[in-house]
Amino acid sequence: MEKRLKSSIFPPHYKFKVEEVIEMWVSSGLILQRENGLKKQEDIARGHFNTLCRKSFLSLVPRELHADPSDDYYVMHDLMYDLACLVSSEECSRFRVTDHNTNIFPKVRHLYIEGVSSKSIDIISRSNYLRTLIISHEENSIQQELVHDLKKAIKGRTSLRLLKLCGNGIFGMNKAIAELKHLRYISMSATDEPNLCNLFKLYHLEVLRIQKIEKEEIVSFIDISNLPHLQKLHLPKNASSRIPHIGSLTTLRELNGFSVKKKDGHKITELRDLRNLQKVIVLDVQNVSDYNEASSAELDKKTNMKVLSFEWSSDQARIDDRILNKLVPDSNLKHLVISGYNGNQPPMWMENPYLSNLVHLKIDGCVEWDKLPPLGSLWTLKHVILENLPKLKYVGRSSYHSGAYSYSYRGKWTKGPGSDGLP
């Protein structure tokens, strides 16, 4: 029951992403590990989410035909929302800057603040049992006096496990956040502090999401040695590229920007020991030295991998096709992106039904490809997005099947025999 009630802290018609909800439930301590320990907390949480959808607490927001399924949103029905607010008022609370009533239950655990003001800061300061704090501020700036008071209020909430700062102007918080030793989850729309070392001292941290770092180009060296429990790391590219020896984070499950470099601590072999990876975006693949180094990443041994993206960021006069051929993912992969690849042909592991569980495929900027890899035997494939393929001329029988999946393509091609079903 508590999982569905926690949704009442959000505004009406708030759009949830599945993974967002699951992360928040787990980080807040709402998901208990089964006694036998065989089922992961994320899987238990996903089961609870599916139950809420099945019982009409949550409904899927319709999306466009070619939209990425991972961007699906859900909303809580109005009647269910009203009921949840009524029943959960002692545990969950939401305060808007326009509210006149500042009374909240003294033992509220989950709090959503809309707008930073002296009243909302006072509410935070009086909430001594908080496990979840979400602050949304849409104004472009906050008075410095309020920023100082907000730092002090946040610093004193030592029981916090989840902190989410959304919107504009909530800057200078890293040092105060570093005092919250029990934090499992941090999400910030932006930070103006290029030195992230304070955040990387939180021993229990499991999820870190920062969308934007002001003056990102001067982000300093990042030490990750004190994050043995980190599972999901989402940072802007220039910040993530300054993290050496990412391979020491053996609990990592999501990495949204691993930038390959030719120097030690940044080579693609850092991925070898990350056996729990479920999602990774590999940037600057052109810096992989040779096919032996590519093979040493052992991507094919990451059986939990569901989302994989390869991105090249510069033109190369000579591309060794063997490098991509050796970056073989596990056959359980569901979502694949190949972007900016200048090789002459698709990797061999796309030439057969090896990726038999693939659901979503995006190919972008593979400028030398004149034909698609054969997709006809991939019966699970539902979405194919093709962009910036200037030499693509031919789509034949092997690139389609009688099952239903959608193509999105910008350009022209020649249809081969049996390809009438394609646009």
Automatic annotation (TrEMBL):
All residue ranges annotated as the Disease resistance protein winged helix domain in the record: 9-84
Domain (R13L1/DRL21-like LRR repeat region): residue spans on this chain: 268-388
InterPro entries per the UniProt record, alphabetical: Disease_R_plants, LRR_dom_sf, LRR_R13L1-DRL21, WHD_DRP
GO biological process: defense response to other organism
Position of the signal peptide: none
Name listed for the protein in its UniProt record: NB-ARC domain-containing protein
